[in-house]
Amino acid sequence: MYQSKFLLNRQKIINAADIAPAIAKYFEYLPQTQRKFIYRMEWYRIGVVVPLMVYSEKQPLMQIFKECQMYELKELQELPKNGTEVNFSLFAVPSKSKSEYDEDKLKKWFNKKIAGAAEVTHYEFGPNNCLYSQTEDGCSQQQTYTVKGSLKIADRDALDKLRKKAVGYGTELGCGLLFISEA
Predict the structure, then answer these.
(1) pTM, rounded to two decimals
(2) 165 near 146, Cβ under 8 Å?
(3) Residue 93 in contact with residue 140, Cβ under 8 Å?
(4) Could you read off the pLDDT of 132-166 as tens digits, one per residue?
(5) Calpha distance 183→174 (Å, rounded)
(6) Which residues have CB under 8 Å from 91's CB, separation 6+?
């Protein structure tokens, strides 16, 4: 599994729905079935250039595009041993519903997702954003939530599998990548 860092040019891409296709260009050398990736974009960051992170099964090909530029590529590091406390961050859409969630519901949802793999020892919330995008079906909006804090690893292998797939919904908008770093 690979972890890549990109810079998104917000002057070239203003529509949230156009980001995943821009990232997909880095995988065009692969057959369609092998172009799997999830990405995280922190929409609350303001600026002309915004960082985003991509996890992919296959290595993206270094190229230059006006929309976004890859600047770092490495293999995803192994998680520490069971019992270790780590930091986590998740930019999430917990359900298909576009309604507002409260912190207790977010905690319950996230605890259910990581059950058996880890236990949260500390929670923080926000900032939360509503993402707007233009699609073939018209204008769309999606409420997103930032959940972060600390967790204690209970089953390293289960947590590793969890971070390599999207958690929740909204992956086409840069949601669902569970980022884990050392505490």
Answers:
(1) 0.86
(2) no
(3) no
(4) 777 778 888 888 888 999 999 999 999 999 999 99
(5) 24
(6) 40, 41, 42, 43, 144, 145, 146, 174, 175, 176, 177
Radius of gyration of the chain (CA): 16
3-state SS assignment for residue 103: helix
Both tokens of 110, joined, read 């996230």
Q: Where are the alpha helices (DSSP H) in 11-155?
A: 19-24, 103-114
Residue 18: strand, helix, or coil: helix
The residue with tokens 């057959």 is 31
- In 3D, which of 58, 51, 52 has the Cα closest to residue 75? 58
Cβ contacts of 58 within 8 Å, gap of 6 or more:
2, 27, 30, 34, 35, 36
Work out the angle at residue 133's Cα, subtended by the Cα atoms of residues 132 and 138, and round it to the nearest 5 degrees.
Answer: 115
